[in-house]
Amino acid sequence: MTLSPADAPLTWNVAGLLGDDPGTSREFDVSDVSIPRDDGLELARPISGHVRFQRTNRGIIADAKLHTGLRSECSRCLRPMEVPVDVAIEEEFLPALDLATGQPLPADAEPDVARLTDHHEIDLEPIVRDELVLAEPIAPLHSPDCAGLCIECGLPLDEGTHDHPTDDIDPRLEALRAFKPDDSTD
Ligand SMILES: [Zn+2]
Ligand SMILES: [Zn+2]
User: Fold this and answer.
1) Which pTM value belongs to this model?
2) Mean pLDDT throughout 90-111?
3) Which of 39, 77, 79, 95 is the most exposed place for a label (fewest CB within 10 A)?
4) Ligand nearest to C-alpha 176
């Protein structure tokens, strides 16, 4: 088994492990892995964790425990925030090719089962990507008791004072008054 290629950090070549007896396993640490950004998925930190591959009678079980964070925004006060995500994967991959003959194995018998690539690789990136999309909360809160935004001045209620008089003061002036320069220079 070789290390992951630099351009596919969540891919491992398991040709060697396929030649071993069932029950044999290999383990790898995952650190500092970024995946190309698409689907609106933006990582706030690299992916780290641990993967374990175990030879079974039919293929290889991948057992991965990974951690990262997604860049998001508080749904009440709109502050940028990070949503921590733990991804646990346990999936059996069956060979795409017969190791002895190099011939493709029939995939139509079990269309839903995960397959190794033609180069005997386990590619976890699509699964990790799916898990991250599923893990993204619909309405994240930067703090469980986030007070949200002031309906008078539009600034976060947990910053500054919001004892706005109810008479007809220009709301733009109110916004300026609630803005305290000391808060923004730290
Ligand atoms: Zn908030
Ligand atoms: Zn206010």
Assistant:
1) 0.76
2) 80
3) 39
4) 2
